[in-house]
Amino acid sequence: MSNLPVPEAVEPKALDIQHDTDPAQDHGPARRIPHIGHALLFFSLAFLFLLLCELAVFTLAHSRIESAGQHPGLGLASQALAYILTLGVSAWLFPHLWDRSFLQGIHWNFLAARRYWYWIIAGGVLLSAVAQASMQLLPTPKTTTFDGLLTTPHAAWFLMAFAVLLAPLTEEIAFRGFLLPALATAYDWLALERSPAGIDRWQRSSMHSTAALAFSAIFSSIPFALLHADQLAHAWGVLGVLYGVSVVLSFVRIRTHSLACSVLLHATYNFSIFAVILLTTGGFRHLDKLTH
Predict the structure, then answer these.
(1) Entry pTM
(2) What pLDDT does 71 receive?
(3) Where are the domains of the chain?
(4) Chain-centre distance of CA 206, in angstroms?
């Protein structure tokens, strides 16, 4: 029989979830992206560009347009420029942080949109009809920020292009591409079992729990609705409907695992609103009909 000493049993200790204590256990770049840090960085960039673009546009227009600060077209132009800059800088910056392409990081998944495009478009039209019908039953503001843009055909077309193309893309990337998965990851992190088994599950999978996805859909929709508060003159009933629309957009994003699907749904929803205006005004040629 061997006389070698028998090693004492060592009780396994819970790993430190916040630090990689063993280089041999290094799992490489984080798989759960975007996380809260990424979302904060994206929204900080958006806020910075909104301020800079508004300052630049109104400064340049001040010497040429009287009451430039009250001109709704300038506000929309500065917002559009800020959206474009935010997307451009983000598409360059985040791949360096993620070690993968920007579209992969935000879970674009175009194949899902191509597969279900007809259902998404039909759903967008139906969602818009239900939302607009619901708003008719609620107190609505007499005038909104965009009413000043629906006075000339050129401005109306510009507003439509912004609302159907640029706004859905940027807002879905912000709220469903960054904020929604970031909140879901934070929820799962806080709810994670601090044990070797729990750590192992966290490291081996990037899937979110159902509770985390429900939490993120509910709470990421709040800032989405508030983003449109000024545009809708803080009509809280209407904003409540918009909150519901955001929850539906989040559900589609989660169900299809595709940000492209929620962008297409959002764009269809907005286009449906303008399609009614186009029919009512004869292609924006008779905008005076909107006031009758």
Answers:
(1) 0.87
(2) 64
(3) 107-192+206-292
(4) 20
